[in-house]
Amino acid sequence: MAILKALIAGAVIAGCLAGPSFAQQSKNKGLPAPIPQEYLDRKRDEAAVDKQYKETLERTKKNAVPTSAKDPWQDLRGGDDSKTKR
Question: Which end of the chain is more exposed for a tag (fewer CB within 10 A), N or C?
Fold first, then answer.
């Protein structure tokens, strides 16, 4: 009799612990969850900012003044150092 009571108590406890896990499962299996409007708004805003950024880059490239790539240390270096001196 004590063994039967222990088994019943174990089954009740297991059922109580398993209940919340079944409650967390989606009721509409196979159907995608609806996309929240905030997510869509954020994506649209990110796309607009990205477009403005690219347009600004293009404008600055067109208006940029070409600069010469001069080595600032050119005058401080010695002559040709490619040959080893012994």
Answer: C
